[in-house]
Design brief:
Blueprint lengths: L1 H21 L14 H22 L2
Length: 60
Amino acid sequence: MKLTIILTVIGAATGFLYASVAGCETACATTASQYAMNTTVYGAFAGLVLAFPIKKKLNK
């Protein structure tokens, strides 16, 4: 459970940093919102998706 939360938070932070630093200014689907909410959510989802196989592998 801790690993899942940690990787989700890391993914959300990475998504937010991407939108803040390297995100495009116009016509990007991932950075269209004013506060970079879309990329933060996408990053959190990516962290969550990565957490499940890692957690499964560690439990073996």
